[in-house]
Amino acid sequence: MQLIGPWHQDSVRALFDLPFNDLLFQAHLMHRKNFNPNEIQVSTLLSIKTGLCPEDCKYCPQSVHYKTPAEKKALMSIDSIVAAAKKAKATGATRFCMGAGWRSPKDRDFDLLAKAIQKVKELGLESCLTLGMLKDDQVKKLEDAGLDYYNHNIDTSPEYYKEIISTRKFEDRIDTLQKVGQSKIKVCCGGIMGMGESIEDRVNFLLTLANLETPPESIPINMLIRVPGTPLADTPALDPLDFVRMIAITRIMFPSSYVRLSAGRNEMSESTQALCFFAGANSIHYGEKLLTTDCPAPEADEQMFAKLGLRKRSQQPVTV
Ligand code: SAM
Ligand code: DTB
Ligand code: SF4
Description:
The protein has a single domain (about 35-305), classed as TIM Barrel. Helices cover about 40% and strands about 15% of the residues. The protein has helices at about 10-15, 20-35, 80-90, 110-120, 135-145, 160-165, 170-180, 200-210, 240-255, 270-280, 300-310, and strands spanning about 40-50, 95-100, 125-130, 150, 185-190, 190-195, 220-225, 260, 285, 310. Strands 1, 2, 3, 4, 5, 6, 7, 8, 9 and 10 form a 10-stranded parallel sheet that branches. β8, α10 (about 270-280) and β9 form a beta-alpha-beta unit. α2 (about 20-35) crosses α9 (about 240-255), α4 (about 110-120) runs parallel beside α5 and α9 packs parallel to α10 (about 270-280). The radius of gyration is 18 Å and the shape is globular. Iron/sulfur cluster binds near residues 57, 62 and 132.
């Protein structure tokens, strides 16, 4: 992992204060040095268990505490997971991310999870899971099953976290990230913009990511989807240019990580997305759905890629 830091509050804040053009120019130069700027990694998501989650994350349609349009669904069977993975492969995804509306998985779920990892990899897809907090032996089970990535977001700054979630502590998230970071599984960790956080919170969110024992190789930057029924449903919309800034600063601070333009593309214009790609975003969620909310239709993404001369990044070597 190459870092051009060490970063401090002042140096990160200085990036937020740059004129937009200067910031985008720096970010784009950094992007070109490390990646092919016309290639985008595409991941398809599948919610393998949906809703009734005991946590109270104020943004989340799956929390049992809020009445939202998200459909509840028990843990899927291996056959249905494999069928969805095959479909994702056929539409051109290179990574298959399976998410569960859990605080943490139960030991009894690991046989199915290991099987799912194995089957996804047999299809030539990278595997990614996001299941909530993990214990040491659970990380080991996922590592032994050959899991490529574990997604576990810190979502916001340590200071703002308690305004968003009361059922766990920021340190609980760091604890799982440390466990995963010490295994062979790659860390995917990012956050959500537009939850009413300040610039200082965005600075401290990025500093926390940069100071993780194992900084993430994959960084999802989500724009809050304001789902009806969640406490954040009426939060004022984020200025798309502030979202682009966040992508650019993430690219500068993490030159060799994948920066994912994650949730929120359905509410974003193509022009905003194009600016995000220029600023250094090189990964997206692709497919009909994110977890419970809609993604742009794959055909619309194909058209946007064609317009921008972008192509999907082909598969990285898969470790089986
Ligand atoms: N339960 C597990 C956990 O919390 O880690 C995995 C699933 S959880 C839905 C995965 C991530 O989705 C959250 O950490 C959050 O970053 C993102 N997310 C959930 N609801 C969102 C929303 N309304 N807008 C943007 N991102 C959202
Ligand atoms: C991440 O950072 N964003 C994805 C993925 N990791 C699991 C999830 C976005 C979920 C958006 C709300 C929903 O569809 O329920
Ligand atoms: Fe549960 Fe994850 Fe949603 Fe929080 S973000 S309510 S832990 S599914």
